[in-house]
TrEMBL record:
Keyword field: 2Fe-2S, Iron, Iron-sulfur, Metal-binding
Full protein name: Non-heme iron oxygenase ferredoxin subunit
SUPFAM superfamilies membership: ISP domain (SSF50022)
UniProt organism field: Microbacterium terricola
InterPro entries per the UniProt record, alphabetical: Rieske_2Fe-2S, Rieske_2Fe-2S_sf
Top-level division of the source organism's lineage: Bacteria
Transmembrane segments: none
Domain Rieske: 4-100
Length: 109
């Protein structure tokens, strides 16, 4: 697979999640307060809830339904009830284009 354009960088609102789908893979794309773009799996691991409808604060995206917050950098849940991480995808910025390849997961330490 190759990276797919999901949106323009200029279309992203700071500290707001946007749902995109690439090759059937739902993702939440976030432009954080530091200007970094993140892409994580859009489905909360606690319930079948879209994370892109949640709340962004700093480096976290919080599920609106049950309150689990996930790190935008690692995908790890930071509190219960979720205990499984969501995938984190590598993002490439090419000019004003935001590109994501769902087959390439970001290396997380």
């Amino acid at each position: 697979m190759s990276a797919t354009r999901v949106c323009a960088l200029s279309e992203l609102e700071q500290d707001t999640a946007r749902r995109v789908e690439v090759d059937g893979v739902p993702m939440a794309v976030v432009l954080d307060g530091n200007g970094e773009v993140h892409a994580i799996g859009d489905t909360c691991t606690h319930g079948d809830i879209s994370l892109s409808e949640g709340f962004v604060e700093g480096d976290t995206l919080e599920c609106w339904a049950h309150g689990s917050a996930f790190s935008l950098s690692t995908g790890r849940p930071l509190n219960l009830p979720a205990y499984e991480p969501v995938p984190v995808y590598a993002v490439t910025i090419d000019g004003d284009d935001v590109l994501i390849d769902p087959a390439v997961r970001k290396e997380v330490n």
